[in-house]
Specification:
Layout lengths: L1 H19 L40 H10 L20 H8 L7 E3 L19 E4 L16 E4 L9 E3 L18 E3 L3 E3 L18 E10 H5 L9 E2 L1 H11 L8 E5 L2 H8 L10 E2 L4 H7 L3 E4 L16 H10 L3 E3 L4 H10 L3 E7 L8 E3 L3 E3 L1
Parallel strand pairs: 7-9, 8-10, 9-11, 11-12
Antiparallel strand pairs: 1-15, 2-3, 4-12, 4-14, 5-6, 7-13, 13-15
Length: about 375
Amino acid sequence: MKRFAVVLLVIAAAVTVGAQLQYPRPHTRAGEAWNPATSRPNPVTYRAHPRTQDPKYKVTPADIQRYERELSNWGRWGANDSRGALNLITPARTAAAARLVREGLSVNLQHFVEFFPSVDGWRFWPAEKWLTSANPQTGQQGDGAALDAVRFSTHEGTLSHLDAICHYDRRAPMLDIDPAYRVTYNNRRNRRDELSCQGTTGIPGMGTGYVTRGVLVDMPLMMGVTWLEPTTPIFVEDLERWERFAGITIGAGDALLIRTGRWAKRAAEGPWEYDQGGAGLHASVLPWLRARDVSLLVGDAVTDVQPSGVENAGRPVHTISMVAMGLPLVDNGYLEDAAREAARLKRWEFMISWQINQSLGGTAVPFNGVATF
């Protein structure tokens, strides 16, 4: 009987542990090497979409260098500016965005990090979640409140995150500078060590939060598909066709949200290496973005079409947007809920708001945007 009671206690403890430990125990700790092949054992090789090589659209390395000069916002808002295109969100534009609220319906624009490995996550570091108030041997909760801890890469592939403008930088010949440094937006020197993105070159220099008009561009809806297939490029003609479809003109201070259907495809068919083979904006869109004075660019994947189709430029939209234009980008934005409500209401403009977590030295922070119709 005593042995039976012990067995019951063991079973009860196991059930308790199982209920408490919803995610695996920590896999790594600081100082331990992480091998991304753990989640990508057999990577797929993607080729650039043929349309990226069409002379009508093709962007060359010489074009990229020209974009650096012609699309630059350096000095536009002063020599010490660190907000870049976010300066376009004026009090008047914020007030106008608030007047777009009619139904009072808010939807989430964030996908939070997943705590299990997948081929589209854990590229830079494993995500971890554990109860800090539970006994690690027994799993029993202490007498106090339940407490937990999380750790993850801010550029994790399943996390909606806002890149710091300093996340990308450039070497000369963009500027003749000390070769020990690279430059970020507005001619800021950026060290390539632990002091990178410090001070106003990083997240704190971008401000604390914004409200402006959000415009959703739902490419799959317009094209009559559930999602865009991997490597599909989006060109200026597609964006302007969307404007006619939605009856909207994208303008200064707008947050532009580009839906490719990444999350819909993932839900239906499972994850894939979207950062190596994903639909997105082609580099030829960059002059259009500068001319329209977009203040924030939100993609549901990495924004750039992958592969980019531009020689020696893996993510030219990222690079030119952040370094030359000072245009912040959001990767992995969750646009499915907003797309559903916009289609129901037949209205693809709304008030968008987001708060910027003040991460000193951070190269990105989780994006916690909300769309309000």
